[in-house]
Design brief:
- This protein is an all-alpha fold.
- It has one domain.
- It contains 13 helices and two strands.
- A hairpin with a 5-residue loop joins strand 1 and strand 2.
- The chain is globular, with a radius of gyration of 20 Å.
- It is found in: Membrane.
Amino acid sequence: MAWTKYQLFLAGLMIVTGSINTLATKWADDSKSKGRDGKIKKFNHPFLQAAAMFFGEFLCFLVYKLMYHYYMRRNNNDAEQLPESIKGNRNFNPFIFMIPALCDLTATSVMYIGLNMTSSSSFQMLRGALIIFTGLFSIIFLKRRLRLYHWFGMFLVIGGLIIVGLSDMLSKNENNSTIGDILIILAQIVVATQMIVEEKYVSGSNVSPLQAVGWEGLFGFVILSILLVPMYFIKIKGEMFSTNPDNQIEDAIDGFYQIFNSWEVASGISGTILSIAFFNFAGISVTKQLSATTRTVLDSVRTIIIWIFSLAIKVEDFSFYKLGGFFVLLIGMAIYNSVFNGLFCKHNSETLVINDEEGEEADATYSQDIIS
């Protein structure tokens, strides 16, 4: 079936905004600016960036409210006429999103630390590890049975991760890249936990995806903003925190100084906030209009764009290892997500479908789309 113009627009919006999100965050990381100590240095504030990301997710809540009131007024308060993206249960306890938000907070912060140490393309590729942990957790906690092609797909993903990691080990920035890669992979354990919690305790509430993303964004932003205060007073020696004036875990004041003193850093942070909001909307709409599998394929296209762009502006060197690792990852994810289901078996409605962004979808039939 041919795609409509609106579906093509949504697909393009998802690819573009998803690519901008990773590239904007990395751009801020690589930009130099004067901090509160008067020193010119790179922007190394992963927790402040994570707070900005959650603020972007919170914007989805505002969009939901505006869309809800607009369509209710246009349709004479008939809730049945609401679009699928905002239709859903409004009588629920918002605190059901607290635990997923805490998982998202932890995973995003760790991933942003890793992104500061490795390349944007490796960051995007290594997030494919999510398939492995979510598959294993679904067996343990959801009592699912994975089919043979799921295991084969997971095996290929592991192989792809090893090749991508080897590529970074052979790069010029060997030590930091390897540590960053490990942090990104470990963060996927937390993301997988988030997805299992969402499916087990949140999916039955039938909340509008935009509203769900907004609530998680609100909780994440408020909690992380509060945590930034004690982080300012906790000092730890080490290269990771050496850019902060007094070696704090996070110096948000220094971060704001750098944002206001550099248009590059400010643009990167703004790009992160706006792109995550639009990416959430586009991702949710793609899943509703097309399918979760289509969304997975589009997310792979985003990885290619990020890598090509990074090569074009010469912030990365081309590596055949990484190219090979990416293709192995891509094939593994495609097999796991039943893209080649005609070669293996018919699609099962209980097939576990993994999307790479930021708190994604844990099942093709799962009504929530939590992205981070």
